[in-house]
Amino acid sequence: MRVGVLSIGVSNLFSITSSLKRLGAEVMILEKPTDAVDAFVFPGVGNFTQGASRIKRVKEDLLSYINSGRPFLGICLGMQMLFEASEEGPGDGLGFFKGRVERLRAAPKIPHMGWNRLHSVRYSPLTENVEPGEYVYFMHSYAPNPTDERIVLAITSYGLDFPSIVGEKSVFGTQFHPEKSGQTGQKILRNFLGISRR
C-alpha cells in the first residue's frame, strides 16, 4: 500500500513517515496528491495563516483528491486546514468541512500540550478497538467548531469539550498527533490503512 504524505514545510515528517512504515505502508513524500497513492496524509504544526499560504498552489489538487473518495487524514494543523477559516489569523482553509477553527478560550493553559483522553461519540472505522478514555498526545491552542456536529467522531475535554476527531466518509481529521500517541495512535493509523485497503 502506498501512502502519500504532504510536504509543504509546516511539519516534521519523520515521526509520521516512520509510524506508517512500521505498519507496513510504502510512504511517498509529496508536494501534492497523485494517483500513485492509495491514501493521503496532511500532517502539520504551526500557524493557520502560514498553512493557508502554503496550500494555495496545491489547493485544487488536494480538493480533487479528497472529493475522489480516497482516504485522507489531516493531522493537527492538517485537520484544521480541512475547515473554512480560523480565528488564529487570515487565510482560507480547504473548506471541505463547514465551520471555523477557534481558540480554546476556556482552557486552563495554552497551548494544550501533552496527553489527554479521547472519547468517541459516534462509530467510525478509524476508532475501531479504541477504548473510551484512551490517551493521545496534543499540541495546539485552537480547535475546529464544525457547523455540522455529525462529523464529530470523538471529543476531548480541556476546560471545554472540543472535537478531537472529525470525519465524513473517507475523510478524517485528528487534532492530536497519532504518530506521537503510543499504542492508541498506532491503532488509529492502522485503522486508517485498513480503510485504505477496502
Please describe what this structure looks like:
The protein is built from five helices and twelve strands. The protein is 24% helix and 32% strand. By secondary structure, it is an alpha/beta fold.
What would a concise description of this structure say?
By secondary structure, the protein is an alpha/beta fold. It has one domain: Rossmann fold, CATH 3.40.50.880. It is built from five helices and twelve strands.
Distance between the termini: 11 Å
Biggest sheet character: 9 strands, mixed
Sequence of strands across the biggest β-sheet: 2-1-3-4-12-11-10-7-8
CATH superfamily: Class I glutamine amidotransferase (GATase) domain
Order of helices and strands: EHEEHHEHEEEEEEEEH
| Uncertain runs | none
Query: What count of domains describes the coordinates?
Result: 1
Topology summary:
Layout: E1 2-6, H1 13-22, E2 26-30, E3 39-42, H2 48-55, H3 59-67, E4 72-75, H4 77-80, E5 85-86, E6 99-103, E7 112-120, E8 134-140, E9 142-146, E10 152-157, E11 161-168, E12 171-174, H5 182-197
Parallel strand pairs: 1-2, 1-3, 3-4, 4-12, 5-6
Antiparallel strand pairs: 6-9, 7-8, 7-10, 10-11, 11-12
Main features:
single chain; 198 residues; alpha/beta; Rossmann fold; three-stranded mixed sheet; 5 helices; globular
